[in-house]
């Protein structure tokens, strides 16, 4: 199990409140870029990417994309190319 938690700063150690964390099973992948206003998480147990935003101190899920029909079997460490604040591309090397 993996937990994605919001913190105000990485400058000092903190005790995380896992009740406020996003819990994702398997081996999820975090895809992010500075300044685009969102990030994405590749699911740990299926070839799916979900867009997330931070609103009012909470992680808010948005749209999800599923890739098995394109031959993607699992989300890997491949890159996600963020091209704008509304668009990103997943670069899957195997296919």
How is this structure best described in words?
There is one protein chain. With 95 residues, this protein is mainly beta. It has a domain at 29-90. It has no helices and 8 strands. The protein is globular, with a radius of gyration of 14 Å. The mean pLDDT is 88.
Short description:
Helices cover 0% and strands 39% of the residues. The chain is an all-beta fold and 95 residues long. The chain has a domain of 62 residues.
Layout: helices, strands, pairs:
Layout: E1 2-4, E2 22-24, E3 29-32, E4 39-42, E5 48-55, E6 58-66, E7 80-82, E8 88-90
Antiparallel strand pairs: 1-2, 3-4, 4-5, 5-6, 7-8
List keywords for this structure.
95 residues; 4-stranded antiparallel sheet; two-stranded antiparallel ribbon; 39% strand
State the end-to-end CA separation: 28 Å
Structural category: mainly beta
Main sheet overview = 4 strands, antiparallel
The average pLDDT value, as a whole number, equals 88
Report the radius of gyration as a whole number of Å.
14 Å
Q: Which sequence of strands runs across the widest sheet?
A: 3-4-5-6
Overall morphology: globular
- Stretches where pLDDT falls below 50 for ≥5 residues? none
SSE topology string: EEEEEEEE
How much of the sequence lies in strands comes to: 35-45%
Tally of DSSP helical segments:
0
Q: What portion of residues is helical?
A: under 10%
- The number of E-state strands comes to 8
């Amino acid at each position: 199990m993996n937990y994605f938690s919001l913190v105000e700063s990485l400058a000092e150690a903190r005790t995380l409140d896992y009740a406020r964390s996003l819990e994702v099973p398997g081996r999820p992948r975090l895809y992010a870029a500075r300044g685009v206003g969102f990030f994405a998480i590749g699911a740990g147990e299926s070839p799916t990417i979900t867009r997330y935003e931070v609103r009012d101190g909470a992680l808010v899920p948005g749209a999800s994309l599923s890739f098995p029909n394109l031959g993607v079997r699992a989300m890997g460490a491949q890159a996600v190319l963020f091209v704008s604040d509304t668009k990103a591309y997943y670069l899957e090397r195997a296919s």
